[in-house]
């Protein structure tokens, strides 16, 4: 297909169908977009150049899943991206499916030997795609691979992490992980202690860039659509490792990513409506993840976070400093959101109807 066009992905695809799909391309690049028209244009423009520089015999297709954007993203892709060297297929959803379910739609429709997930606010450095393909070709047990993510100014951002646990979550929520970023103990979750130039086997890599082996997905399954946003990559990587494959971080694959993990940090300000919504999504997904993989420990996850918000409120509510009083008010809001997330997921047992 040489021009941008709409396709309808199958509602479901079995593991066997995923494995036996006609692999016309070396890689299928999957981009999920929601109201990011200008960034998406920049992303696709850089991809067009990157795909044209692949080694001889390597080919790539691009699939864009639009999650019911209202900013003209669909029209922009259809009008501006007709590229014989890197065909663009557009999957326009009438509703916001979330990241995981939208990615599944594209994976089910893809014809690449490898599946490459890329955020619409992420851009390959020269040779990154070819490097990722070479790494996967060289290691048949590599089920998923991540890149070195950097900001526009070149500053590194954590991209390869360890699985959540009550202890690791506690260090993040209390700020100890941020206070001691070079500590293997306190900063284990995001591995900020690690040398970003050193390749490593890790627990999970972020979906801002992720290259996946089709055979690994055939055994582990696709993204769990119960996770509308957050924790979907953690859950998938956990299942990929359980299926006997490895999750790897390769620093010679460099990708500029405009948004880091800032949404996980709590600042000293009153939450806006959008910030509260993001916090609520994170809490819902956290409960779903803990219930799915740790059972009754989900109660500990709730108790830990709720207790920390209560302590933050008690510590700051009577302070003469406005910033600390603001943190106390914020703690009240977060505590309410946490209880709402618990109720709406029935303690992590069910996912609220999408879109969240």
Notes on the structure:
The protein is an alpha/beta fold and 356 residues long. The chain folds into 2 domains: 5-262, Spore Coat Polysaccharide Biosynthesis Protein SpsA, Chain A, CATH 3.90.550; 266-344. It has helices spanning 15-19, 37-52, 73-80, 99-109, 128-138, 166-174, 176-179, 214-220, 232-242, 273-294, 297-316, 322-344; strands spanning 5-6, 25-33, 60-67, 88-93, 112-118, 122-124, 142-150, 156-157, 160-161, 200-201, 204-205, 209-213, 246-257. The strands form 2 sheets. Strands 1, 2, 3, 4, 5, 6, 7, 8, 10, 12 and 13 form an 11-stranded mixed β-sheet that branches. Strands 9-11 form a two-stranded antiparallel sheet. Helix 2 links the parallel strand 2 and strand 3 (60-67). It is globular.
Q: What is the fourth-level CATH superfamily of the largest domain? A: Spore Coat Polysaccharide Biosynthesis Protein SpsA, Chain A
Low-pLDDT stretches: 1-12, 260-271
Write down the overall mean pLDDT: 89
Please estimate the helix content: 40-55%
For this structure, the CATH topology of the largest domain is: Spore Coat Polysaccharide Biosynthesis Protein SpsA, Chain A
How many β-strand runs? 13
The number of domains is 2
Write the H/E string, N to C. EHEHEHEHEEHEEEHHEEEHHEHHH
CATH class of the largest domain: Alpha Beta
Strand content: 15-25%
Gap between N and C termini, in Å? 34 Å
Q: State the secondary-structure class.
A: alpha/beta
The helix count comes to: 12
Over the alpha carbons, how many angstroms does the gyration radius reach?
Answer: 20 Å
How would the global form be characterised?
globular
Q: What can be said about the biggest beta sheet?
A: 11 strands, mixed
């Amino acid at each position: 297909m040489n021009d941008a066009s709409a396709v309808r992905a199958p509602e479901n695809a079995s593991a066997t169908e995923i494995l036996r799909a006609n692999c016309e391309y070396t890689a299928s690049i999957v981009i999920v977009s929601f109201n990011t028209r200008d960034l998406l244009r920049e992303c696709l423009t850089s991809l067009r150049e990157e795909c044209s520089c692949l080694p001889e015999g390597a080919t790539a297709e691009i699939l864009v899943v639009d999650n019911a954007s209202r900013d003209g993203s669909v029209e922009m892709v259809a009008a501006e991206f007709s590229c014989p060297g890197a065909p663009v297929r557009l999957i326009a959803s009438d509703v916001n499916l979330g990241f995981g379910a939208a990615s599944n739609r594209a994976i089910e429709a893809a014809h690449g030997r490898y599946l490459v997930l890329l955020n619409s606010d992420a851009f390959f450095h020269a040779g990154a795609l070819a490097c990722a393909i070479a790494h996967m070709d060289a290691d048949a047990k590599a089920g998923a691979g991540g890149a070195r993510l950097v900001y526009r100014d070149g500053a590194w951002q954590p991209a390869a992490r360890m699985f959540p646990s009550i202890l690791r979550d506690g260090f993040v929520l209390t700020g100890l992980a941020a206070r001691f970023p070079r500590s293997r103990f306190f900063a284990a979750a995001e591995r900020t202690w690690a040398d970003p130039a050193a390749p490593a086997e890790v627990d999970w890599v972020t979906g801002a860039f992720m290259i996946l082996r089709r055979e690994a997905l055939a055994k582990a399954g696709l993204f769990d659509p119960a996770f509308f946003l957050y924790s979907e990559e953690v859950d998938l990587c956990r299942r990929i490792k359980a299926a006997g494959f490895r999750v790897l971080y390769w620093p010679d694959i460099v990708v500029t990513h405009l948004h880091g993990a800032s949404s996980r940090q709590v600042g000293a300000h009153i939450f806006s409506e959008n910030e509260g919504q993001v916090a609520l999504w994170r809490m819902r997904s956290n409960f779903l993840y803990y219930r799915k993989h740790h059972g009754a420990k989900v109660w500990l996850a709730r108790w830990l976070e709720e207790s920390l918000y209560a302590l933050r409120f008690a510590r700051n509510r009577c302070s003469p400093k406005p910033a600390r009083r603001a943190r106390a008010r914020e703690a009240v809001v977060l505590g309410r959101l946490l209880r709402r997330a618990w109720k709406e997921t029935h303690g992590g047992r069910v996912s609220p109807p999408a879109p969240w």
